Amino acid sequence: MLQNKKEIDLIINKYAGKKGFLIPLLQEVQDIERYLSKDVMRYVAEKTNTKLAEIYGVATFYSMFRLRPQGENIIRVCKGTACHVSGANSIASAVREYLNLSGDEDTTADGKFTVMEVACLGCCSLAPVIMINDDTHGKLTASSVTKLLAKYKK
Amino acid sequence: MDLKIKVGMASCGLAAGANDIYNAIKDYQKDSDIDISLEKTGCIGMCFAEPLIEIIADDKSATYGYLKEDKLKDIIENFAKGEPQKGNMILSNFADAEENETLASQTRIVLRNVGQINPISIDDYIERDGYKALEKAIKELSPSKVIAEIKESGLRGRGGAGFPTGLKWQFAATQFSNKKYIVCNADEGDPGAFMDRSVLEGDPHSIIEGMAIGAYAIGADEGYIYCRAEYPMAIKHLKIAIKQAEENNKLGNNILGTKFNFKLHIKEGAGAFVCGEETALMASIEGERGMPRIRPPFPAQSGLWGKPTNINNVETFANIAWIILNGAKEYNKYGTEKSRGTKVFALAGKIRNSGLIEVPMGIPLRDVIYKVGGGIKNNRPFKGVQLGGPSGGCLPESMLDTLVDYESINKTGAIMGSGGMVVMDDTTCMVDVARFFLNFTQNESCGKCTFCRVGTKRMLEILTRITEGKGVLEDIERLENLAENVAKGSLCGLGQTAPNPVLTTLKYFKEEYLSHIEDKKCVAGVCTNLLTYEINPDLCVGCTLCAKKCPVSCISGAVKQPHEIDQDQCIKCGACYAACKFGAITKS
């Protein structure tokens, strides 16, 4: 049984019969669910009369879709060219170290943070840059980034 | 005295703290006797000095940067007194400010309103001749006349490949169909590029106007802006602008009292670089996996939902209204014979004045970097400049006299690309840069073509082992072979150009590859596996800090005695190097 069935139904109805609906529909469902679970994808497939394989294909093709639960705060570490030459790697490892993430873990055990690496946030003049939720922070160093994260940890 | 203050509040300004500056001026405004009108604007362009404000009084204007809240009061009051202070002044129209030269070599057509107007005010846009070109086109010119004008202007697609825009429009216009689409590619995916973001955030109406003119010219009544979801502010501003345009009868039915109808939608991308390729982009709008397909049929013949479709990028559309309003002849005054007009570049990396610039085509690269860009940060030596993102290439000092036009840049092995220009100094390793781009394209390959899917993976593996000091001399030939085959065996631009960063670094920086392979050295000090950290016993005071910081406990030594690193255990993490307060640890 889906928890947010009502909201999901509303989204499905909104897009019913519209051409090219799948991606915006999944984006909105993910905004509510925070990720696309198997159950959600099955439900959307059934309701919209779309093949589950097609939904899974789209969900795995685009990097915005997540198949695993994600944390309350999303941290996007920019790995664009300007950030790369300005030390993005040390920022990324400082973030992961501060949040105690090891191996290929991307979400903290308490579900507070998810860390992703993105290709470019387009704030190259302020490299290295990270984005926490919708806010961009630039000209970071390994020590300033941990101070920044501390503010969100509260 | 009345003052007008504009605060640059595009994404980069906000990231640097423009919101605090805006609020501080707002607070100050309340208690001050000075009459201040405060406005938000887009990217002022000199991102290196964010947060920025521009103060205007009568005929004087000055831009102040590197702002902190506590500096504002003095800056505003001195300006109001008619004694503008020099501190923090970046640009001005009356005094010799530090960076005036950054504007001297620029010509602003695409960026004519960016950083000047409030982007979410249609009145601001209209006040600066906005929507006049649309009115002129649909009321005075026939569609074929519009196309003729764009053809004569010599405008070429600014997305990277440089296909003549007028010709593209003509293909779409000559198709017989009851339904046609026009699409704006705002999926600016090249890492190191932010031109389109700045235009979308700072002047969204110029895109809407350009698209409406295009739609009229080719006979489309519906359009899409495909914008990447990583640009939330761009999407927000576009949504507001579209609504305003609809309310003002610049979009919708019977536009400006004519028979022309045009409806515009926004589609958010979902994070796939390959969707910048036009056939993949259309598949994505249709709600499918964004995978490119064979052309022909070209989008002009069979595009979105099988209908004739014309796709141009943001910067191309931003040129249209200016050309229609001022005429192709006026546009022809800028640029070279084959590359007309201007080009917007995003200057980033190790350059002093990083930011958004627009220069006439045909200007030498050297002028872009040293005059407009102010040279290299911290006066370090220049090593290379990367043009055109993952599809482009790195050019060395010896190529800096290359002119910025499509043909000249293509000759070097790089490409004009969409306009990302990342400058590199002696602390950048060119093998690492090539590896970085291959990592990117390998990740972003959609997997359809074998050569792109597997070939980029193999190239990445080779580059990785070279940066780890495990490369062999034959690897260079293998890279060259793979590069040729990946380029030949790929369907779309992503695969065809993926080898460019490797080929250009091999061509211009081969000695760096050789020193990684033969001497196991990374001169830039970037490739960690090739570094050695050593403690200079003469400088070490035995504070033990490095030993405490070392994550693998490979530093030994008694208190107040010089310490030593066990090279066999060292993981080259650099923690000791960063921790040492006496400069006793060397990296080589």
Describe the 3D structure.
The complex is a heterodimer of chains A (154) and B (588). Chain A is of the alpha+beta class and 154 residues long. Chain A is built from seven helices and four strands. A four-stranded mixed beta sheet of chain A has the order 2-1-3-4, covered by helices on one side. In chain A, strand 3 and strand 4 form a beta hairpin. In chain A, helix 1 (5-15) runs antiparallel to helix 2 (22-33) and helix 6 runs parallel beside helix 7 (142-153). By secondary structure, chain B is α/β, with parallel strands linked by helices. Chain B folds into five domains: 2-99, Glutaredoxin (3-Layer(aba) Sandwich); 122-331, 3-Layer(aba) Sandwich (Rossmann fold); 342-425, Ubiquitin-like (UB roll) (Roll); 430-517, NADH-ubiquinone oxidoreductase 51kDa subunit, iron-sulphur binding domain (de novo design (two linked rop proteins)); 532-587, Alpha-Beta Plaits, CATH 3.30.70.20. Helix content of chain B is 39%, strand content 15%. In chain B, the strands form five sheets. A five-stranded mixed beta sheet of chain B has the order 2-1-3-4-5, covered by helices on one side. In chain B, helix 6 (132-140) packs parallel to helix 10 (204-218), helix 17 packs antiparallel against helix 18 (450-467) and helix 18 (450-467) packs antiparallel against helix 19. The interface between A and B is large, with 42 and 54 residues.
